Amino acid sequence: GRKLRQLCLAYAYGDGKAKSCKNAVDAVSKVLYGIPIDSYMSINLSAISVLNDAVGGVNVQVIGDLTSVDPTLKEGANVTLLGGQAETYVRSREFDPLDANMARMQRQQQYITAFAQKALQEMKGDLTLPLDLLNLVSENSVTNLSAPKILQRKFQEAVFHLTISTALTVTSKKVRQDMQNIIRMRQNYLR
């Protein structure tokens, strides 16, 4: 049977590799009313520092006070995360506040967005960067994407960005609202 649970549990019920990814892909597709998901990549958190340094570090404005694990991670500070500091930033959470997990998820969303922006910036000077990143994390990742498929997608993105003059920025608040709406629609549909 099936039960309504957190999406992350779909991954946990697998093998930590391709089966986990298939479970997660199927679960996300169901939440999105059957929209097919044709590719995936799962990266072990230990690979974050390698990816982070490959793009020259990632700048963030620190969410929450993490000075207990790193004195430079003071709430509100602008920090360029380097090395293991990136993993510390996305993995750590305080244990006192009730919303500690929510703050950690906000840091993860913030980091992913900042990393993607930095990687795109770096790709302007090096179109092979996606393959370099893939090679760097190959032992700590699972994907159904091949190197030619990644290059094809990067080429398509480059063409897209050349033809579109306005970039749309979606804030994490908007994404969260959209996901909450999708969950509500899904719950109403199941009733």
Description:
The protein is mostly helical and 191 residues long. The chain is built from eight helices and four strands; from the N terminus they run ααβαββαααβαα. It has helices spanning 7-12, 18-31, 48-54, 84-91, 100-123, 129-137, 147-163, 172-190, and strands spanning 41-43, 58-61, 78-81, 141-143. The protein has a two-stranded antiparallel ribbon. The chain has a two-stranded antiparallel sheet with strand order 2-3. It is globular, with a radius of gyration of 18 Å.
Distinctive features:
191 residues, mainly alpha, two-stranded antiparallel ribbon, two-stranded antiparallel sheet, 8 helices
Q: How would you sum up this structure in a few lines?
A:
The chain is mainly α and 191 residues long. The protein has eight helices and four strands; from the N terminus they run ααβαββαααβαα. The longest helix has 24 residues.
Beta-strand content: 5-15%
Give the beta-strand count.
4
Element-by-element helix/strand order: HHEHEEHHHEHH
Low-confidence regions: 162-172
* Strand arrangement in the largest pleated sheet: 1-4
Give the SSE map.
Layout: H1 7-12, H2 18-31, E1 41-43, H3 48-54, E2 58-61, E3 78-81, H4 84-91, H5 100-123, H6 129-137, E4 141-143, H7 147-163, H8 172-190
Antiparallel strand pairs: 1-4, 2-3
